[in-house]
Amino acid sequence: MSVRHFVGDVAAAATPDHDRGLAYGDGLFETMRAHGGAVHWWPAHWLRLERGAQALGLALPGQGRVQQELEALLDGDGGVVKLIVTRGAGGRGYAPPDPATPHWILSRHDAPPAVPAEGLSLRWCDTRLAVQPALAGIKHCNRLEQVLARAEWQVLRLQDAQIHEGLMCSTEGDVVSATAANLFVLHDGRWSTPSVDRCGIAGVCREWAIGALQAREARLAVTDVEAADAVFLCNAARGILPVARLGARVWRPHPEVSQLRRHLAAEHPAFATEVA
Asked: Strand 182-187 to strand 190-194: parallel, antiparallel, or no bridges (unpaired)?
């Protein structure tokens, strides 16, 4: 892993003291799949970052400077790049500093493992996502709910190595997403994905899949997922992830999911080698 730190437009040796992202989760991040020294979905990632910054009232570094440093970090290679932008330093206390100089961190990581040939096995998480429309959709730095949910099967994995992900509901009971991916379900030839206007993340790959499938956003119950004709997860780092099992419910490979994976591979070069 390679990491670079910045304060405004100036490179730094490390994240400065009193960083509000570290203290309060006062920041945003993007996790992006790279190929050949570039991020194919860069415009969509930056647009979501801008939306999040507007919601938080947070200043961003210059897009051109970030893209320049990102490409230098990749140096013609691929993998996964993570961009974290925090409000900057602010001392103790919740009140945001004014003015504030953003801190930002770029890190490069290996590409994630390929999707298991048989598809993913899921479980329902006990941890719920709090309903907070002011933060819904954006990828802010406070992900403690996902951390708790992911830890639920840390020990269980020793007993059942087939658990790959967990599905999370809101505190009101509707299905929202997996811990690190968005969810799509098929009913009677129509694809749906949970609405993320009250909690959850509006994923970049989710946005692409909605357009590719003409999918609808809707409130989904647990029974809607378990009764689906097909299910898949998606995120920008791993693409389209077919689901084979959710507890006792089992799905056979579905041709529409396979077709969607081929469609993504044709449009996004990072996923071209992952589809036979």
From this structure: antiparallel
What would you report as the CA-atom Rg of the chain, rounded to the nearest whole angstrom?
19
End-to-end CA distance of the chain: 29
Domain with 178 in it: what CATH number?
Answer: 3.20.10.10
Could you say which of 51, 83, 109 is where a domain stops?
A: 109
**Pair 170, 244 in one domain:** yes
pLDDT, tens digit (0-9, with 9 covering 90-100), for 22-76: 999 999 999 999 999 999 999 999 999 999 999 999 999 999 999 999 999 999 9
Judge whether 99 and 140 are in contact, CB under 8 Å: no
Claim to verify: residue 86 and residue 168 sit in the same structural domain? no
pTM of the model: 0.95
Cβ atoms of 220 and 248 closer than 8 Å: no
Domain-embedded: residue 114: no
Instruction: Respond yes or no on whether the N-terminal peptide bond of residue 99 is cis (omega within 30° of 0).
Output: yes
Exposure on the CB side of residue 25, measured as CA atoms within 13 A: 9
Which of helix, strand or coil describes residue 79? Answer: strand
* DSSP characters over 173-210: S-EEEESSSEEEEEETTEEEEE--SSSSB--HHHHHHH
Per the structure, the count of domains in the chain is 2
Note down the domain range covering 246: 120-274
Distance of alpha carbon 137 from alpha carbon 126, whole angstroms: 21
- From 109, 139, 162, the end of a domain falls on 109
Which of these, 115, 116, 111, 89, lies nearest to 100 by C-alpha position? 89
CATH number at residue 93: 3.30.470.10
CA 83 to CA 204: how far, in whole Å?
14
243 CA to centre of own chain: 17
Q: Which two tokens stand for residue 71?
A: 């490409």
> Do residues 204 and 83 make contact, with C-beta atoms less than 8 angstroms apart?
no
